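Summary for the steering committee. The consortium agreed at its last meeting that each partner would contribute one worked example illustrating the joint modelling workflow. Our contribution is presented below. We chose a case with several input lines so that the handling of multiple components could be demonstrated. No manual editing was applied between input and output; the record is shown as generated.
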Amino acid sequence: MKKRINFKDDILLGNKSYFILAILIIILTCLSPIFLTQANLLNVIRQVCVTTIACAGYTLLLGSGHMDLSVGMILMLTGVVVAQLICNEVAIPIAIAIGLLLGAVCGMFNGVLITVFSLPPFIVTLGSQYIFKGLGYVLTGNVPVSNLPSEFVEIGQGYVGIIPIPVFIMIGTIIIISFLLSFTSYGRHALAMGGNAEAARACGININRVRIVSYGVLGACAALASVVQTARSASAQLSAGQDLSMDVIAAAVIGGTSMKGGNANVWGSLIGCLVVGIVSNGLNLLRVDANWQIVAKGVIILFAVILDATTTRAYEKISIRNKVEQQHKEEKNGN
Amino acid sequence: MQDIALKMENITKAFPGTIALKGVHFEVRKGEVHALIGENGAGKSTLMKVLLGIYSADEGSITIGGKEIMPKSPAEAITAGISMIHQEISLVPTMSVSENIWLGQEQKFKKGGILSVKARNKATVDLLDRLGIQLSPQTLVNKLSIANMQLVELARAISLNSEIIIMDEPTSSLTNVEINLLFKIIKSLTQNGTSIVFISHKLEEIFEICDRVTVLRDGEYVVTRNCSEIDDKQLIGYMVGRQLTARFPKLEAEIKEPVLEVKNLTSTGVFRDVSFEVRAGEILGFSGLIGSGRSEIMRTVFGLDKLTSGEIVINGKTVKITAPSDAIKYGIGMLTEDRLRTGCIYQLSVMANTTLAYFTRLCNKLGLYRKSSEKKAFNEISSAISVKYSSPKERIAQLSGGNQQKVLLLRWLLTKPKVLIIDEPTRGIDVGSKSDIHLLISKLAQQGVAIILVSSELPEILGMSDRIAVVREGSIVHVCDRADATQELLMEYAFGRK
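What follows is the complete predicted structure of the assembly.
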């Protein structure tokens, strides 16, 4: 009996993203002849890479029980800075390193404000995104940064064999974040904090430090995503990252990471990003009006949130049922 | 024969794992002040929550003013003529006194769909005058002192014209002046036929104001007596009158040097000037009523709460503890009071929950760890007590309360503590797990761990401890040896009757 419940837990609730992805692929294959072509699929994957790189960091942050609405603007600001550095003949690796550092600093800025003034992350990042956005506009004077050297553009547009370079960067990021979560004390502490911050503190975990680092990691991921994005479009656009935070929250949640914290499924987030990317690709292929696509995006985000809430509740119900059953059994044995 | 205002018969209420009320009887006459007393967890608040419709009873009946009724919600209870003044303030701080008193009763002051503030304020002045409370109806509640807030709560309960008013520790935040006022109000209310249920830990107040008293113990009805016919010794006897049948697995342990010494620990407004020491191999019991400050003292020693002044000495050296990580570093572990809120991390597995406090020690300098070393640590420690789980990877949320508590104990065992603080280790868990945990605590003491056991259960304290400290209103009022301690003695100190 117990086995069966756990089995259902794992297959249906834990891996719901795979089912959603499979269903989407089947529907789109039926509706559009272009969908399952190599060109289109590569296109989807390249689009998804940027979101996924940011989403990997976001998954960690959600797992630690936090959120960041400014992630899109961190992406835009770091993109602009990296592009300007390169245009001013700073060596590409150094420019990228500075970009990553800047991203981490922006993230930690949020983390420090949240920690020092004990503020809700929602409000802090809602506000701080305007700082990042404004700084980006100030630095560029409202003009996109272009004329980037081809070596840099190669990062976003190049291929190794038939596989685009951004795919390697994306997989690399996922592996690093998974590694942090599975093999370091920091990762375990972050998940413990996300599950129950008070209990984590009582276990001697410095939750303030863990929180700030988590925001820093997300910032660095956003900066890495911005490098790929800038290289792919061969320019740093001021419109970059506008819908990013909502996309990554939806993707992470579809991928099985709870908005309540305590678990983080990075590979699931990749699937979630594919779902979000394929929906928007499908809508394009089906020639849905751009304005209606915005509506569709809202539907996806709300769908993801509802899905999260209902699966969490389903989990809770199952565990309460198991617990009551077990307690009955123990009482019987005890008497 | 006086009229019966309220009759609760054979009330039974079970929660998963425990039975909170077992066939309880409670009867209040019209116009009397009836005290309801008992130790922590005796079932007073559960009984009142059943009466107020917050919980529904599994069995039993309630008769109010001759009509049988089983309130399903607080709104139904109010309609039936019952209201309650809670211990915690439940006013809306940003609203005025007048708005708060008539909250939910605005209908009374509506003229053609529009609320007449003037009529409401006038009603407020009338009510407050009648009660002798000097407050302006327009004052915002957040500008009031706690005592005055209590009086507003009282006025609100009275404004409902309830037949029965329940007062839960109504004097806890009042000064003598307001207590006298409260008692005057109570007397005038009862003269008009209102009945009062008076819940209090202060026995002298019960003898001063109450007509009869009902005692509950361990969820069971004990006795109802006229206050004029008994004294406080008898009353305490009723509260603790259980037979100490449960055997506790107390093992012989050699008590050695002091490990933890606490000197003049003070946290302003919470506890003051607390000093005690605990020795290797010793179990020091901390008794006292809930809210007496015993848990707060322990939270402060462990670095969860800040201290105002005082000294903590470990193995003869004064140490500074500002966070639990410091305490752990010095070899202190703490099983916190609230398994739900500060113990379990429900999304993590049994293994991850077990290794959490020890985790950094499993990692190398770079913060990396091997799954195999975590498994090894878990396997070594998990044999200390039998926990039922299907796999170490099972989420702790799936376990029963008793098993969760055992996992949390393992968490602290793994850190190899020199001092282990254990706060309410067996609250709300099954009998089997309880004795497993008691045995483990005993064994730990035998191995030379200094143990501080905080508990509301007197048999547990008496059965397990070598020495017992009683905390009352933020101070240690008595320390005695195991041999000298009795339930009555501890309760007399806890209630301040000695």
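The first strand of chain A starts at residue 159 and ends at 160. Chain A has one domain: 38-327.
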